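Amino Acid Chain and Its Fold in Token Form
===========================================
What this section holds: a protein sequence and its matching fold, both as plain text.
Structure line: whole-number tokens from a learned vocabulary of local backbone shapes, matched to residues.
Purpose: to set a sequence beside its fold so the mapping can be learned.
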Amino acid sequence: MSWGTELWDQFDSLDKHTQWGIDFLERYAKFVKERIEIEQNYAKQLRNLVKKYCPKRSSKDEEPRFTSCIAFFNILNELNDYAGQREVVAEEMAHRVYGELMRYAHDLKTERKMHLQEGRKAQQYLDMCWKQMDNSKKKFERECKEAEKAQQSYERLDNDTNATKADVEKAKQQLNLRTHMADENKNEYAAQLQNFNGEQHKHFYVVIPQIYKQLQEMDERRTIKLSECYRGFADSERKVIPIISKCLEGMILAAKSVDERRDSQMVVDSFKSGFEPPGDFPFEDYSQHIYRTISDGTISASKQESGKMDAKTTVGKAKGKLWLFGKKPKPQSPPLTPTSLFTSSTPNGSQFLTFSIEPVHYCMNEIKTGKPRIPSFRSLKRGWSVKMGPALEDFSHLPPEQRRKKLQQRIDELNRELQKESDQKEALNKMKDVYEKNPQMGDPGSLQPKLAETMNNIDRLRMEIHKNEAWLSEVEGKTGGRGDRRHSSDINHLVTQGRESPEGSYTDDANQEVRGPPQQHGHHNEFDDEFEDDDPLPAIGHCKAIYPFDGHNEGTLAMKEGEVLYIIEEDKGDGWTRARRQNGEEGYVPTSYIDVTLEKNSKGS
């Protein structure tokens, strides 16, 4: 089947059909372009959606911890990868389908135009041959008619007796001329006819079939190209199916990774305070003064014992309790009277004064309503650690359990930084050795400033680690102390609860205070911590600064190398000694930075 033989007379129809084919090709290219735009917009919207719901990790505290949150963020990551695959589909379609279609459509238009021009030229040449043949035919016909007229005129004159001989000869010559011209036109017409027939045969059996064959091949190539583009359109989608399947599998795995038990445990770890639940509200006996009146102000031994245990229990449990929904409202108490003080004895037989619940409430009310006193250095330090930012570096504003976790995290970070600095120091030392062995490679002295800076960083990090470990030990000691007190005897409740450390952290054990003065009596130090007098502590020795200390942190004291200070409180094991200048300025200095000399009569005080 060939267009040249079957459609030899359908030039105009083939012209329209090939134009329709090119228009259809361009229409499909437009379809692919719009599909590419849809894929690009879809991928863009997916990425914007992922960006909208992804967390802005400005700090580590905002990082997702719960398995449900981590699973959701993993799903967002998989969705982002899915959006990337949609972009791959769009790029593949744009390069393999749309671009190829546009290039082929341009080439197809050029080729079609060339073939149609060849066909029109062949048709014009055939028409020209036909016109030449037709002109020769008409001329031959005209000459034949003139020859017939000349023959009729000669015959008429030759039969006419009245005609002269000259007229007959003239008519004969005219007949011979017309006959000769008719013969020449006949030969020309025959030649033109033969030429036209040959050109016509060549046109319809050689030229036009060749042109139509080329048009047919062009149209078939267009159809094949469309088929390839259809296949490429589908392959662009099929190539990304394995990766999209992995993205969907990742979403399923993220959904399976959700662990409700682990999330519940994280809630406990995040919000556990470490405090003990509040105990029973103690019975407060307001009828003691009635019994004293009846017995003329005398108190029996049995009543003293019961009063002692009630007072101790009241002081130990009621003071500083952390209630579930805030602090317990304190009831009104009668004024402090001398009868509210009585003597009690410990199991080892020692005597000391014991306060009932009335004087405690009285003192607390006096503090709230009385004229404020000028705070001492310790109270100022405690207040700074609660209210000001730099003093919260020990996380004393947090509950014990949360404080322990934060300190442990900081210690881990400091250890990592210390390891980096140590590695850098080792690398610098190796480089220095190489420079010393090969001076042409570099100057060993140029590394000295960097080594000094690294050593300073290492010393600073070690000091920070030591300080944070001391705070961590303090918190862990308090936590352990609370666990031991749960199973202790009732006599252990004599120790006052609800203490605050000098840094402002909450503690239940009065013996856990790190930077306070040595404690002699539990009850006396209880009131000494709450109602500290303004008299400065006596100097127990002096010290000389070996190294300079900047003292940027709150509660610390800056000093210069060689400066002499008074010692007013020894190192309690946390690496800090409390000192005072001659002008009365007090603060803590690193013990390793000073040379301490204590007075003999003051050691152990």
User: Anything to note?
Assistant: Residues 3-264 form a domain with the Substrate Binding Domain Of Dnak; Chain:A; Domain 2 fold (CATH 1.20.1270.60). Confidence is low (pLDDT under 50) at residues 295-391, 483-534.
